[in-house]
């Protein structure tokens, strides 16, 4: 029997950060940068007006007061985006829009509300100091400076900076493309009619959602029956677009070992009884030309536990994240239960509280029953160590926060 | 001058939860349920084997011990998905796969590893109690029961439950469709060559990313020049697919009031000088047949502050969330600064710490400078109240956590 830690190590060893790919900015969103992005020019490239008003020489209006305004001749007007240089001669002003480049020899901008809004001449009512209301060239970025380092996630604020620096493309670790195959004769697509004995394919939809939440792209394949030829053909069809294949079900170690039998000739996949509950039978390895594959159980609760324990950390490693794991907090359980000996148990709980006052974890549903309804109402998984069989009210367990 | 609170109230009054729409399960992901979802049948619909093994009558193997196994005749085999009912006569067993419906009159499943794996007959080495390794009919959901209540967000665990309950479609508040228009003669698309005086359109890309992060769908329109006809045509073209329109820039209260002039005949949009920094000029109202529109400033830092303050809460209201706001924490600032009088200031800070030990907020870049590089390196906005002009090191400010 393999430990959880050993199986996780095998899963992480089977994958690695996807090779850098240069993509257009919108496709970089949510990805991890695979390069130190350098500024190719200063930002701003010139001194700019920081407000609407009049570009002046501060020395010309040194004596301006509300009761003694200084009047300057307005020699021109500059809108944002103006590209022709203007030179400011002493005693004059240029009407200027916020964001427009300052005329040469101007060193301050008087906000429009401190003037009489003049057209041919303008009366300035307050003095300015040099640099006032001016956005200095390169005050944001200097050419050659690192805009954002490799390893940074590209979110809205990072996109603002990359775009402002003029980058239309950046190198990122692309989103992993994950193919999901649910295996089982009993599976029916939700929304269709199920005969007694059939069950709806919860795993395909739930895994696709979880994989997307981790920032990966999912290709869900409809459920395939427990038939060797169909499963083999499905896998061969899908491999071309997969960075990772996930199968659920088809792993009974009694009768129908479809997944094991199909994968044996297609690649090198190792199956183990892993010391966890729910879970047990799990597979990891490669198929085709080295595409990683994880074989997960068929039970929907066991699948989400296996996703949290093995798949999500692997997806984050592929996407280039340094931090692979969810936040967890220690929480006192509100009720006790018996936990299987020699297996690490993951129990659906609802965690409340705060670090200041401490956390409490209430089991949702009976811990021994694998209820999907309890899974949906939980917000954390309490982790019971392998050697603990008797969990008592008040015991503190590490709880994995599922919405973190 | 309007307060931040007044402008936020106007923004929220201009929108509302989008009307419920029935969508297929994959399209419901990330949305808020607009109906109480009821179970249409029991889950499971029948008693099922919870493990691979042999379905038995517990009474038949009451005396089984490792040194005195009980032998039963194997009368059939049941795979998962089997739909034909089987009746178990006393003294017999049915080989059964995990997930298969129990034969009538069977009341327990003996795990395969507690037997000799027999085909025609099976030797059972341990006794069972009634119900052992059986997943009881309706133990997860009872027909008519509320599976998930309206107001719940559809994530991976909720999808598992909806799919398991057979729901192929659910009613949700759909994702808001947001059209984003950047206005300005000076704007150039990132990746193209910028002349001196031109600036790259950071707002379109950054807003599109922020809007997506909030779960909405974005239609970014390339930057349009500060020209009335082009802006009007762009708005008229885009209205048909918009639940909300956002404009950035074109709001100078000096010269080029393109946005104001274009919007005046198209709808009822009110422009105000809002008592905040960065920000100032902001608009809110409706265009066309009542599509809400928010006019935001042109500066990229001011745009992200306006997004956090007004747009994100409005998007969450449209998407049906009850909780509209990001988490915030009180944090002691590491350095002081002068803050404008009579305006609520939002300063880019990097927050560290924990609730237990307290939080610290270090300003990123000079608070008075609107640096995109500082925005990208910050993880929070410190909020300085309107009446505070002198922030000192050690003062505690509320900080909006931007990654929460």
Automatic annotation (TrEMBL), chains A, B:
<dbReference type="InterPro" id="IPR036688">
    <property type="entry name" value="MoeA_C_domain_IV_sf"/>
</dbReference>
<dbReference type="Pfam" id="PF03453">
    <property type="entry name" value="MoeA_N"/>
</dbReference>
<keyword id="KW-0808">Transferase</keyword>
<dbReference type="GO" id="GO:0006777">
    <property type="term" value="P:Mo-molybdopterin cofactor biosynthetic process"/>
</dbReference>
<dbReference type="GO" id="GO:0005829">
    <property type="term" value="C:cytosol"/>
</dbReference>
<dbReference type="InterPro" id="IPR038987">
    <property type="entry name" value="MoeA-like"/>
</dbReference>
<feature type="domain" description="MoaB/Mog">
    <location>
        <begin position="179"/>
        <end position="317"/>
    </location>
</feature>
<dbReference type="GO" id="GO:0061599">
    <property type="term" value="F:molybdopterin molybdotransferase activity"/>
</dbReference>
<dbReference type="InterPro" id="IPR001453">
    <property type="entry name" value="MoaB/Mog_dom"/>
</dbReference>
<keyword id="KW-0501">Molybdenum cofactor biosynthesis</keyword>
<dbReference type="Pfam" id="PF00994">
    <property type="entry name" value="MoCF_biosynth"/>
</dbReference>
<keyword id="KW-0460">Magnesium</keyword>
<keyword id="KW-0500">Molybdenum</keyword>
<protein>
    <recommendedName>
        <fullName>Molybdopterin molybdenumtransferase</fullName>
        <ecNumber>2.10.1.1</ecNumber>
    </recommendedName>
</protein>
<dbReference type="InterPro" id="IPR036425">
    <property type="entry name" value="MoaB/Mog-like_dom_sf"/>
</dbReference>
<keyword id="KW-0479">Metal-binding</keyword>
<comment type="function">
    <text>Catalyzes the insertion of molybdate into adenylated molybdopterin with the concomitant release of AMP.</text>
</comment>
<dbReference type="InterPro" id="IPR036135">
    <property type="entry name" value="MoeA_linker/N_sf"/>
</dbReference>
<dbReference type="GO" id="GO:0046872">
    <property type="term" value="F:metal ion binding"/>
</dbReference>
<dbReference type="InterPro" id="IPR005111">
    <property type="entry name" value="MoeA_C_domain_IV"/>
</dbReference>
<dbReference type="InterPro" id="IPR005110">
    <property type="entry name" value="MoeA_linker/N"/>
</dbReference>
<dbReference type="Pfam" id="PF03454">
    <property type="entry name" value="MoeA_C"/>
</dbReference>
<comment type="pathway">
    <text>Cofactor biosynthesis; molybdopterin biosynthesis.</text>
</comment>
<comment type="similarity">
    <text>Belongs to the MoeA family.</text>
</comment>
């Amino acid at each position: 029997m393999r430990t959880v830690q050993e199986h996780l190590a095998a899963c992480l060893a089977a994958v690695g950060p996807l090779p850098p790919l240069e993509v257009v900015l919108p496709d970089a969103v949510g990805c991890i940068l695979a390069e130190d992005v350098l500024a190719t020019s200063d930002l701003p490239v010139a001194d700019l007006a920081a407000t609407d008003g009049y570009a002046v020489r501060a020395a010309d209006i040194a004596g301006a007061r509300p009761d003694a305004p200084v009047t300057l001749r307005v020699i021109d007007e500059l809108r944002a985006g103006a590209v022709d240089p203007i030179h400011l001669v002493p005693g004059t002003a240029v009407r200027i829009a916020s964001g427009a480049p300052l005329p040469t020899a101007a060193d301050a901008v008087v906000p429009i509300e401190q003037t009489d809004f003049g057209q041919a001449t303008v009366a300035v009512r307050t003095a300015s100091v040099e640099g006032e209301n001016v956005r200095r060239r390169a005050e944001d970025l200097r050419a050659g400076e690192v805009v954002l380092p490799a390893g940074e996630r590209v979110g809205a604020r990072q996109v603002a900076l990359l775009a402002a620096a003029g980058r239309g493309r950046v190198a990122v670790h692309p989103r992993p493309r994950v193919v999901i195959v649910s295996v089982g004769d009993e599976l029916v697509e939700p929304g269709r009619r199920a005969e007694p004995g059939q069950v709806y394919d919860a795993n395909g939809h739930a895994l696709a959602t979880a994989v997307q939440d981790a920032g990966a792209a999912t290709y869900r394949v409809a459920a395939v029956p427990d038939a060797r030829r169909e499963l083999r053909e499905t896998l061969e069809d899908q491999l071309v677009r997969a960075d990772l294949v996930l199968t659920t079900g088809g792993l009974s170690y009694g009768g129908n070992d479809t997944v094991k039998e199909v994968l044996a000739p297609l690649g090198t996949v190792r199956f183990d009884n892993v010391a966890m509950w729910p879970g047990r039978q799990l597979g990891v390895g490669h198929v085709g030309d080295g595409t990683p594959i994880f074989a997960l159980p068929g039970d929907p609760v066991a699948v989400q536990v296996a996703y949290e324990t093995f798949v999500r950390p692997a997806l984050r490693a592929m996407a280039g994240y340094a931090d692979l794991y969810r936040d967890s907090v220690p929480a006192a359980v509100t009720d006790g239960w018996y936990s299987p000996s020699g297996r690490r148990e993951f129990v659906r709980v609802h965690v409340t509280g705060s670090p200041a006052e401490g956390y409490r974890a209430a089991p949702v549903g009976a811990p021994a029953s694998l209820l999907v309804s309890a899974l949906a109402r939980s917000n954390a998984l309490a982790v019971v160590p392998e050697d603990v069989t008797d969990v008592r009210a008040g015991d503190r367990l590490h709880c994995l926060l599922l919405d973190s």
